[in-house]
Amino acid sequence: MADRPMLHIIKLCVGVKEVAELATWQAQRLRQDPPLRHKTRMMPKRVAELLDGGSLYWVIGGLVRVRQRLLDVREEEWEDGSTGCGLVLDPELVPVELRPQKPFQGWRYLDPAAAPADLPRGGTQAEGLEKLPPALRAELRALCLI
Questions:
Q1: Residue 2 included in any domain
Q2: Burial of 43 from C-beta contacts in 10 A (0-12 / 13-18 / 19+)
Q3: What's the confidence (pLDDT) of residue 130?
């Protein structure tokens, strides 16, 4: 059997507008019901590839912004007794190069070659951005230039 390449997942972070909001929400969930996981209806068929170094890439506000390493993928029972999938996540949110992403339902596999690169630790922030007019900053952000 040939070696399978690593694989990622991409998913919309519905209802969240900023990465800080996701971080707060996840910290609370981790305290209440460890380990940190995201529940979704569909179980991936390519689990071995996902667990070979794969990550969940979050789309927030129309942009891929951060990723979290996938630690496990498991079947879980929901409050109503039905079963779904629990994507067990590393709590570390890793910022990635911003990339626009159109909305879609559920999650999708993401080939590593198509995944945005991680930003350097500490990020790269241009100096003087706060001096730009808000409308210009918003337009530059929408174009993924800042």
A1: no
A2: middle
A3: 73
